[in-house]
């Protein structure tokens, strides 16, 4: 019995070590993608906007390629959140990012429910609203609201008050991102669809501004992943 108890105490450490090493492999793998121009190949760019691609940095390109290659069920951030041993640490980490435990909790919950990397979910919300539930963006014929900037034309069933509710916004925003991921097959194109609409992306009309939008999200996601490895995974080894 004593041997069994000793084995049980060592097992969580082995799991955390494997998660940590898995994450390091993912991050190190970015270097290998520098030789591929995978980002611009993920979807066509509108002809009139193609000249602006020079502003997409090599860092953004390999971050995009790396993210496109990931499988959500193997995401180490999601594994850390799903582990009882590290869940509270993950919540504390992302609360430090957003400055609000309630907002962090709902984003984590719906990222988990939709099998989306927490780092990707938080990077998307940062890009869309800087984690401000009351954020508003007025377009020519529509309005975006809340954490994930839900568009009133895309979500006509939701009132403005509902869109400003963090839980309602996170649930709908991340469910929609999951839909885009399922339709596109990879995170890069899914983010483009989230921003520009699936029809425009599928028809080869992805605007340059959308490529920049995707680049910023992926770059911030990589930063979050590295910090999460250092401050949560390593801490619990």
Short descriptors:
single chain; mainly alpha; 12 helices; 3 strands; globular
Descriptive account of the structure:
The chain has 237 residues and is mainly alpha-helical. 64% of the residues lie in helices and 3% in strands. It is built from twelve helices and three strands. The chain has helices at residues 2-28, 38-41, 58-69, 76-82, 87-98, 101-113, 118-129, 160-164, 166-184, 187-196, 198-202, 208-233; strands spanning 136-138, 143-145, 150-151. The chain has a three-stranded antiparallel sheet. Strand 1 and strand 2 form a beta hairpin. Helix 5 (87-98) packs across helix 6. The longest helix is centred in the first third of the chain and has 27 residues, at 2-28. The chain is globular and about 55 Å long. Belongs to the transglycosylase Slt family. This is Transglycosylase SLT domain-containing protein. Pfam families: SLT. It comes from Candidatus Avitreponema avistercoris.
Residue share in β-strands: under 5%
End-to-end separation in angstroms reads 24 Å
Beta-strand segment tally:
3
Largest sheet: 3 strands, antiparallel
In terms of quaternary structure, the protein is: single chain
Computed structural class: mainly alpha
Tell me the number of helical segments per DSSP (H or I, 4 or more residues long): 12
Order of helices and strands: HHHHHHHEEEHHHHH
Gyration radius, rounded: 19 Å
The global form is globular
What's the mean pLDDT score? 80
Give unreliable regions as ranges: 30-73
Strand order, sheet with most strands: 1-2-3
Helical amount among residues, as a percent range?
55-70%
